[in-house]
Each structure stands twice: as C-alpha cells, then as structure tokens.
Fold:
Amino acid sequence: MTNENPAALIPELALLAGAVLGLLAGAWLPRRRQWPVRALAGAACLVGLGATVITAATTPAQIVFGAAYAVDTATQATRATVLTATLLALWLSIDTVDGHRRESEFVVLLQLGALGSILLSGANDLLLLFAAFLLASVPFYGLAGWAGTGRTGEAAMKYYLSGAFAGVVMLTGTAVLYGAGGATGYAALHEGLGAGPAGAAAVGLVAVLAGLTFKAGAAPAHFWVPDVTDGTPAAVAAVVTTIPKIGALVGAYRLLPGAIPVQVVDWPLLLAVIAAVSMTLGNLAAFFQTSVQRLLAYSTISQVGYLLMAVAVAGRSAEALPGLLFYLAGYAVTNLGAFAVVAALPAARTLDDYRGLARRRPALAAALVVCLLGLVGTPPTAVFLGKLTVFTAAVDGGFGWLAVLAVVNTVASVFYYLRWIAPALRSGDPAAGSADVVHSRSRLAALTAAAASVLLGIAGGAVLPLLGGALIR
Amino acid sequence: MSVVLSLIVFLPAVVAAALLCVPSRVPGRVFVGTWIATGLADLGLIVAVWTGLPASGGFSFEERLPWIPSAGISYHVGVDGLSLPLLALTAVLFTACAVFALRETRRVKAYVVLFLGLQTVCLGVFVALDLILFFLFFDLSIVAMYFLIAGWGHGERGRAAALKFFLYTFLGSLALLLGFIVVFLAADPHTFDIPTLVTANPLAGGGAAAGLALLAIGIGLAVKTPTVPFHTWLPPAHTEAPATGSAILAGVLLKMGTYGFVRIAMPILPATWRDYALVVVVVGVVSVVYGALVALAQTDVKRMIAYTSINHMGYVLLGVGAAGLAPGTDEQARQLATTGAVTQMVSHGLITGALFLLTGVLHDRGHTYDMGAYSGLSARTPRFAGLFAVAAFASLGLPGFSGFIAEFQILTGALAPAPIPTAVAVTGIVLTAALFLVALQRLFLGPLRIPDAPGAPRPFADLHAGEALAIVPLLVLATVIGLAPRFLLDVIEPAARTLNQLVAR
Structure:
C-alpha cells in the first residue's frame, strides 16, 4: 500500500477531530456554556473547506487507501457542499441549541453525520460504502431524538427502525454483490459482475440501493421523512433532510456506472422509475399539508426525485455530473434557507401561522419567498440552473419522458409552495397569534441562505465548469 | 459595445432597489413620482435607440457577455425591428400605468417596487437574444404578476385567479424550457444563443425531435398568448387583477407569447414551422371567432375585453401562420402578413391597455364591472364616455386607428396563402364591432342608472386629470399609427423581410 495518504483526507479528519475534541470538551464544560464546542465545529468546517479548496486547486484526482476511497471532483464538490451546509446548519440552529443542556451532543452528532455523508460520496468500495452509510445514519438517529420530547422520541424510533432495516438489507445486498462479482472494489466488481449471474447482481443492487434511497429520502424508502421532519425541531429537520442526501446521491452516482455493468442490470431504467415515483409521490403528498415542516418534508422527497434523474443518466450525458453536483449545492442552500425561516419562527407551525408575515417581518418573508420559489426552480436561483442542467442531461441521456414528468411535477409543486407564500403576503394576524417570537440568528441565517441561493445561481457560470469531468475509477 | 439596452432594462430595477431603502411612511406620491420619472427616462432612451436603429435590419445595440459558458448561456441582448416596437410599447404602457397609479392608496411602496421590477423583466424579454435569458425574464414576469394580482386584486377571488394564472402560465413556461433544451441539444456546439441557433438551423432535417421542439415551444407560447384552447386562465386573471395589472397583462405579457413566435419558433425551426403552419393558422382563426363569440355573450365589461384579447391575438397567429404557408410563392403577401402581425401586437397593447384602464375607472366609481348595473353614463360622465367610445372603435378596427392598419395587413397578406381561414377570420371583425356597439349602448345610452351604495347615492365623478393623462396618450398613439403608420412600419418591415427569408430557407 503506497497510497495511504492521510493528507488527502484533511477535510474528513478535521470533522472527525472537531467531533472528538468537541465530545471531550463538552464533558468538561458547564452545561449552559458549551458554545466553545460549537465554535470548534465551525473552525473544523472552515479548515475542511480551506483544505478542500486548496487540494481541489492543486492536487489531481486520486484514489487513496488501496482502491477504497476516491478523491475527485465529485468528492471535492460534496465536501464543499456538506461543509458549507454544516456551517449553515450550525448557524441556523444557534437559537435552538444555545444554552441547551445537550448542546455539545447536537454539534458532535452533526459533525459525525456530515463526515458520514462525505465518506458516502467518496466510497469506491462496497464495504466502505456500508461503513459510511452507518456513519451517516447512527449520529442522525441520535440527532432525531436530541430534543428529548415525546414527539422526537417517536421520530427517532421510526428513523432508527427503518434505518436499521435498510442497513440490514444493504448489508445483505453487499454480500450478494460480493458473491456474484467476487470483489467489493467497484472496478473489480464491474469486471466480475460482467461475467457473473445477472439475477444475483440485480438482487444485490436493489438491496444496496435500499440503503442509499433510505439515506436520500427517496421513494420507496421515504416513509421516515415526514415523521422525522415534522417531529423534530426545525434545526434538526433541516440537517436530516439535507446533509445525508448529498452523500447518498453522489455515492449512488459513483456506485452505479462504476460497479454495475448496464448490460447485466438495466439500472438506468430502475433509477428513472425511482426518480419518477419519488417526485410524483412527494408532490402529491405535499399538496394539502398544513404543517410547514411536513410540507417541506414532502418537498424534499420530490426534490430527490429530480436529483435522481441525474443519477439515472450517469455516464451517458456530459451534463449529468455537473448537474447533480450543482443541483445538490443549490438544493442544500435553498432547503436550509427554508428551514431557517421555520427555525426563526418557532411558534409558527402551520401555514396559517404565517399569515401577515410580510407586514410584520418583511425581510424574513422575502427570504421565505426566495427560498420557496428557489425550490420551485424559478430563475435566477441556483436550483433553476441545477434543474436546467439535470433536465438537459435527462433529455440527452434518452429519458425525455422523465423530463416531461419532472416539468409537470414542477408545475404541481408551485401549488403547495404558493399555499405557503400566499398567506405570508396576505394582511391580517395569524390565527394562533404569538408568531412574533423571532429567533434573530436563525433569521440572519435564512437571509444569508436566500441571498446565497440567488448568488449561486447568478455565479453559476463560474461554478459549473469546475464540476465537470468524469469520475476517477 | 453600447450598454444602452442594459441601462434601459435595469434602470427600473435599480430604482426599485433604491426605493426599497425609503421608509414606507413617505407619501405615496413620492414613490409614484419616481416611477413616472423612471418610465419617462426609459422612454427617452428608447426613443434614442429608435432614431439610432439602422434601416438595414439585423440586430443593433448588441451586448454579449459570457454568463455560463459551460452550459452555452450568455448575457446577450439586442434589438431589431421586431423587438424595438414592443420595447417602446412596454415603456409607454408602464409610464401610463404609473400616471394612473397616482390614485393608488394601498401599500404604495410595495406596489411601485413590484411594478418597477415587472418593468425590468418585461423590457428584458424583448431584448433577450439568449433562450435562457429570455426564459428568465419570461418566468419572472409570471412571478411578479402573480404577486400583483394576489396582492392588489379583488379579494379572495383575486387570489384564486392569481393561483390559476401562475400554475397555468408556469406550465407553459416550463414547456417552453423543454423545447429550448431540445433545440440546445440539437445544436452543435450546444448553445442557447438565439442568433447562433438561427444561423445554425439545427433541426433543419425535421424528424421527431424537431416536431417535439416546436410542439413544446408552441404550447409554451400559446399558453401565454393565449390561444384557444389554452386561454382559460386569462378571463379570471383579468377580471380580478387591478386595472393597471390588467393593462400590463394584456398590453405587455400577452405579447411575450406572440413575440416568442416571431423571435424563436419561426426563425429557429423554419422547416417545422412551414410543416405545421396550417395548424397555427387554424388555431389563430378559431381564437379569432371563439374569442369574439364568447366576448359577445359577456355581461361583465372587463371579462368582455379579456375575451377580445383572445380574438385580437388570434389575428397575430393567423399572420405568422400565413407567413409559413406556401413559402416563396408570394413574397409580398407574406411580408404584409408578418408586418401586420407585429403591428397588431403594438396596436392591441395600446388600445387594450387604454380599455382596461378605463374599466378601472368604471370600477372605481361603481364598484362593479357588470354592464347591467350601468346605463346612460354619457350624460353624467361625458369625458369618460368619449374616451371609452374612442377606445372601443379603435379596438373593433375602425379605419384611422392602429387596429385597422394591423388587421388590414394581416387579412390582405393571409388571403392568398390561406383564403378560407382568412374569410372566416373576417367574421371576427363583424362580431367585435357588434359586441363593442352593444357595450357602448348598454353603458352610455338610455336613462341614467348607477349602482348605488347602501344608503346614500354615491357621487359618480367623471375622469380625473391624472386618469385622463394616463389614457389619452395611449389613444393618441393608436390614432397616430392609424393615420401615419410609416414611422412604425419602416422599422418593422426590414425585420419582417428578414424573418420571412429565414422561414423560407
């Protein structure tokens, strides 16, 4: 082994160090003054971001630790997105966790989950993929139960049980694929599966995808999303609907063309069907929600559907990878922005509570409108450019029907986003009252995210070319 | 490189951003006054561009900056004889609406900021020479208009109409985007740049991709225009929108659809356009007749005018469709049809804008659009009655007004390539004449009847100076174009000739 190069893993190591040191420090700090743990986590993210930028600019793509871990454009982009999202999540959660007796746990679990998500994106070996799956799952189970109230207990239990089931299925799939292909490294597996039994390969792939779709919150493994999102504080919901998705989708993108020969298993069609079902189910279920967090939960399911379109045409369109990575970045910022608005108004839980927001809190209402229209894909926000590239990739890759379905779904999604925007712009007081408690730091995070979502879209010309290129094998 | 077009487009947005920093307790007149000044400044710049436009055709005042080079997207703007009249129309209508808005009292700051933003995106659509830039402005016009109808429309029904408008036109815009993607992928190298695509003619070979691209783009534009059967969003949106919103919706936003045909669908997909030109002609004629018939049956005056928009836009489709029929046979006839189609866009914008502002006056006084509630208004409000009559006669195509010039050119041009559809379309003029005469009779003749408020009879004032100042210039312009159209036709004709050559290749 000559490529055991820890210097290639500085962002991952920074997160790990931030988490471990934070855990130790949290044990010694007074219960109500644990902010240094948060500061440490922020510093870890910044170090990781710095290292990502420097290595992306200076070091060519490489595979490290045998053939286990790939550090290429996709990994670097995931690092940048996950670390930025983690920073944003730390920021929008300040008002929720500050002074809480389990503050350091929140921060540590967030960092470990983020680390798992990054590892998912770089994993080039089924065993590492599974380990990363666990790392991206277990901390978030804890995070779901973090607030410790009755509803979060239920959410955490549901998340844990479905996650444990998905994990077992994924492990079985890993074993089956190993049996069929005789290897766990993607390149070797690709070779082995070409000559192996197609039936076993198909079963193994579906089982492995069960784990990844669970992490991404895509149909049919999406049942945990609404309950966990609705049952946890907005800060936690923001994290679990954003950060694991990034790694899971990039991980799937790396796994499918890298390890599964198309002539053995028709995975593009499988992914296209998953994408179609996700976007449609998510949208239909979101239609008549009255709880804002539940509405956002279903909206994230439909967003995963659009994102999976890029995975379905992986390797068949030059636009697929830049589209996926850019869309993920735009989605992360915009979705966190929407959740930050929710976190800024802790008393407003239903759509009706947002009535008259534009009058009382014009800036927050503007951030909400920008983020929700951003999720629709209105130009010039980042998600628009992401959608444009992904739709182009889908048409280019021969899935024109999927692009048409995505367009129809996008129009349908306008309906429920407007159900939220319309009362916010209406005059009059909220039905429940008391929506005037505003968390100022979450509010600032929301404004920043909304601005970033627009700026990323406008600056897409500078970002998009950086995301091109093929994956390293 | 001249930046005058960017200045024209983004001046209102910059002013809007500056106004955002002004506290809203400042009197509303300050905001509206700033808006009027911005509109006049824009108008001045457009006049400068108009005088500087070379007679040769082709794009002028072009600006091109790379925006997202890896996706073939650039910030590319420019004007030619097809877009400049619409650009001028946009500035005129927005300035008229600004003057009209002097009487607005509800949340004036937000209202003016929203309108200035809408002004930027509307101007942007007509100068965009990149499909994605076009789509960006096209889409944002929907968002801004949604907020306008939902925020300043007529209550709960206004919000429902705004939602319908948003969903329907958003579907159209995304269909358009799909079509753009197909064209983008067909071009080699991939690009969204309109002049490059026109030159490359990437789907000249026809086939399924070309048909699908035209279908997607056609549906997208047809929803916005709107044509039968995609028109159902229009009547409620118009009825529930505030008067200024209706004027902009009919005067400017509908033109984005028809402009899309002459700017994008025809020159980029010429062969496919020729193949399906008869479909366009038929859709146009059906819109003409259906719009007129349904308008005839309305008792709500605003709804009636909304349906006449469908009728008038039908003529535009007839004109552009006829240009694709029997190419190369009668150059002059097709030239006439295309020129007439563009003239009709300008004419309809001016006249219908004035009509919608006038119905706003009516609603302001009587709080209803129901024609049955009014009678004999000419005695009480002679100025209002006079202007309404002028606008109605202009709209039904009386010689001496711009509508006549436009419709005459379209029908003359379309007669040779499509004789039967043209003959059917002429009946639309008769129907429009009938419905406007009936409306005038109901509103203005007979014994005086005014909808009373509960309790005391309300004062029913004639047109105020501010309202007249907004409406009269529109009608004066429509008359000037009707009497001395050369200044407009000289700009349109070279561009129309170029367009016909592009369609015929």
User: Anything to note?
Assistant: The mean pLDDT of chain B is 91. Chain B touches chain A at residues 66-71, 73, 132, 135-136, 139-140, 143, 146-147, 150-151, 159, 163, 166-167, 170-171, 174-175, 177-178, 181-182, 184-185, 212 (CB under 8 Å).
